[in-house]
Design goal:
heterodimer; A: mainly beta; four-stranded antiparallel beta sheet; 0% helix; B: mainly beta; globular
Chain lengths: 113, 120
């Protein structure tokens, strides 16, 4: 199974500042048939279901604010919130869908400093 | 409204059985693969099972293979997970999730989850 490791486990950022989460996979998730990385990011707020933010490592899901961006390739990926808003307080997860079973990172909790 | 609503969780003794349901609305249910994903407290999120839109293809994590069965009733827009021979380590919140694209197991819609507790 591909192991997904996120860092840090928690992050406190001031309102309006940048927040960056890192996700590393134990092997490459680059899908050779389309040269895209099989990596998704999710947001889960307290008491709410998880929400897909980004897939193919950098494609924003419809309706997701453009302050959220994904980057990276191969085994190293980032989720960046360019200007943290109060409503962004949540736990963020990465997930690879390159191979079965799909596997998730342990989550990164983002809070307001 | 596009949503998934799980039900059927509860407290069950080790070795017991439970059936989870997930009612879908707001999209063409039969056109989409569906999955179950669970999260135990203090543990990571774990994929459990997936099923194709027609129901003809099913997939399981090694940890539940032979004990859990995924199925769907497209006439009722409902996904199921039959869980037998339950163990303490199956204790978790179980989420149903809609697969984002055929053959690509990212999940573009999730339910709120239902708690399964396996304990004597």
């Amino acid at each position: 199974d591909i192991v997904m490791t996120q860092s840090p486990d928690s992050l406190a950022v001031s309102l309006g500042e940048r927040a960056t989460i890192t996700c590393r996979s134990s092997q490459s998730v680059l899908y050779s048939s389309n040269n895209r990385n099989s990596l998704a990011w999710y947001q889960q707020k307290p008491g709410q279901p998880p929400k897909l933010l980004i897939y193919w490592a950098s494609t924003r899901e419809s309706g997701v604010p453009d302050r959220f961006s994904g980057g990276g390739s191969g085994t190293d990926f980032t989720l960046t919130i360019s200007s943290l808003q109060a409503e962004d307080v949540a736990v963020y997860y990465c997930q690879q869908y390159y191979s079965t079973p799909p596997t998730f990172g342990q989550g990164t909790k983002v809070e307001i400093k | 409204e596009v949503q998934l609503l799980e039900s059927g969780g509860g407290l069950v003794q080790p070795g017991g059985s439970l059936r989870l349901s997930c009612a879908a609305s707001g999209f063409t249910f039969s056109s989409h693969g569906m999955s179950w994903v669970r999260q135990a407290q203090e543990k990571g999120r774990e994929w459990v099972s997936s099923i194709s839109g027609s129901g003809g293809l099913t997939y399981y994590a090694d940890s539940v293979k032979g004990r859990f069965t995924v199925s769907r009733d497209n006439s009722k827009n409902t996904l199921y997970l039959q869980m037998n021979s339950l163990r303490a380590e199956d204790t978790a919140v179980y989420y149903c999730a809609k697969i984002g694209a055929t053959g690509l197991w990212y999940f573009d819609l999730w339910g709120r989850g239902t708690l399964v507790t396996v304990s004597s």
